[in-house]
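Input:
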Amino acid sequence: MAKDKILLAHGSGGKITHELINNLFVKYFRNPFLEKQTDSAILPGYNEFLAFTTDGFVVDPIFFPGGDIGKLAVAGTVNDLAVSGAVPKYLSCSFIIEEGLLISDLEKIVASMAEEAAKADVPIVTGDTKVVNKSKCDKIFITTSGIGFLPDVHKKISTGPDIHPGDKIIINGSIADHGMAVLAARNDMELQAEILSDCASLNGLIRSVLDAGINIKFMRDATRGGLANVMAELSSGKSYGLHLDENKILVQENVRGICEILGFDPLYVANEGKVVMVTGEKDAEKALEIIKKHQHGRDAAIIGEATTEHPGKAWLTTGIGGKRIIDMLAGEQLPRIC
Amino acid sequence: MAKDKILLAHGSGGKITHELINNLFVKYFRNPFLEKQTDSAILPGYNEFLAFTTDGFVVDPIFFPGGDIGKLAVAGTVNDLAVSGAVPKYLSCSFIIEEGLLISDLEKIVASMAEEAAKADVPIVTGDTKVVNKSKCDKIFITTSGIGFLPDVHKKISTGPDIHPGDKIIINGSIADHGMAVLAARNDMELQAEILSDCASLNGLIRSVLDAGINIKFMRDATRGGLANVMAELSSGKSYGLHLDENKILVQENVRGICEILGFDPLYVANEGKVVMVTGEKDAEKALEIIKKHQHGRDAAIIGEATTEHPGKAWLTTGIGGKRIIDMLAGEQLPRIC
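Output:
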């Protein structure tokens, strides 16, 4: 493996991405905001705090069951803000387009962005368009950035410093849908039951939990690297372990099938409409009840808890009663999934 | 010309870009912030206003005399905020990288971004990295977004509603350096005197003018489409004309030479360190004095004024005394210049 060149794995969100971020970006850009490495930077505003985030979207194919690159670019950035505890307020979008893209395809994407922005109730307020020569990019790449207003009381949600053994881990539904939907679309697979991406803006769902006065101790969307990556990152270096019970984690039948055929572990597959929350034991049932009422939370479940066992690690009790450590993935499981 | 496909001209910043923006982006994303079509969106913050901007950078080649894609990505976004009258506060960066890029090249770019961010005194607080397969992008594309704090008193600077005949037009130096530097680098031209891009963050220069109490009525950086585009856009639909005196506009000798050889009009060539300001007649000399003291303003000049003649148009008195209208460029003069 050449060490002097960028590999697909550098974009995986796993260990090698972290190395690149630490050895290059954080090293050179060093400042207290960036060093926190949360999905949204938490920034002093005039009076209260701002959340600020950016994400590039290069998904292939650009249209897939359940969404497209435009919907993904809006929902992904809305979610990065929302999981920080912020109220998403404004979005920007920057298009890099390959010469020759059908304007009708661009229009579909733009219409889909507008629809998702309206659903999430976050306006797209500024943008940019660049066009590059044919074969110098792949149809279209979209980078969205977002600003949210962050009440002081939610400032800790993205880092989760107050988690203790006994706290519960909640997710708002099934895992691995997005990754497998894109993979099936990319390979033109003929499936008995179509897999839909779970791509959706979760700010409404999250707001309903916060507004009910639930103390969400930690929240993150389980995108690249899947649920496993969120757990591995959160537990790393902590005095507690994070335990998941495989029996509680929903994987839809058709998704499980394609994962098994192709050799993917659903825990590591990207989601685009799933948020992982950690709350105190007492809050968990109430939170679950609220989430289940929401369109994007019907299949929500408590899937695990923080433990005194295996401090600093995430670990899984498998369906047949075995135990395994959930490590961060080193390389790339599925390039261009988002 | 196929009407159903994206052309390089759609990314030119000229007429065809405007058509795309209006017929697609503004049509679908419609909201009062976006509709202003300023480089930075002006947004209500908690108490004061926020400026929010984004720009994708796809310059080819990624290294050129006077800068590189990283320096450009930082300075370009800092400048978009600064010309809106805002104090640039935070930057984000999103990298889309082609598999196989030399990590040493990425490091040069990142170091250059860090250096420019430090010069401009604006931290890069959040980012994202995606990697795409070889030949699916061209080395590296960078999208930077920025947030600035905008004092209420400067809110009109980006639209310039208070311009009247007699007001003066100021620019902080020579034009067309960036475009010709990139073009010369792209074509490996052997020049007697190397052309350096003017790529630079101008927030310091701009702040010194505003802090002196100068009433800047309008400000914009003259990037894609050059000085001509700024003048054509500003004058469009207005009750005044904008007159430029070609004799006052500095074009460096080597830049003029290459423009003449290759058939480019320097008025339309991209700059990356040039700001156009409009002030009242009385303020103009004072503003010029302040700008000239600055490292990036030594060759500043008053190059024209708002007129009662030719309302709604920008027009030029040529070096030999002729007159011509400065129209917005329809298509693409130089693709991938920024």
